[in-house]
Amino acid sequence: MTLDARQQVLTLGSMKLPATLTLAALSAVMVFGQPSENREIPAAEVGSRIKIIGSLGKPLGEKIQITGTFPTRPQMLANPLALSTIDGKPPGREIQIEVDQSLHIEKGITYTLIGYESGGFSSAPAWAYPEGAQPQQPFQFKTFFVPVKVVEKKQP
Description:
The protein is mainly beta. It contains one helix and ten strands. The protein has one helix spanning 23-32; strands spanning 2-4, 9-12, 15-18, 20-22, 51-53, 64-69, 80-86, 96-98, 110-122, 140-154. It is globular and about 50 Å long.
């Protein structure tokens, strides 16, 4: 795997891809792409040479302002926020994101937050469970929002 910085192209075997990939696209390339020797990405390259685009449509770690409320039908997230705007614009689809536990999201409150999207692996690999036990969720990469500043917190 190589990255041509002038062209911002990631090369996996004979495939040339944009250097900025969504996590889903990167996963698809890794699973369905080239032979196994081309399916590994050194962790040190993620964030420096390879940008992962989060569920908010921006690279992880980029400054983002979001507005939202506790969802009426929350997904299985520990501290969910249903977004009404991302950087002042409607998201165009329903987006719920888990907010880092440093800020507890309360029902009935509209939050405007400045922060960034980050991510990490959740659950544990299947091999780590006792024989015959199955994890509730697969070992997977998840993103979450890290609030740096509460711009506004109001009741509608």
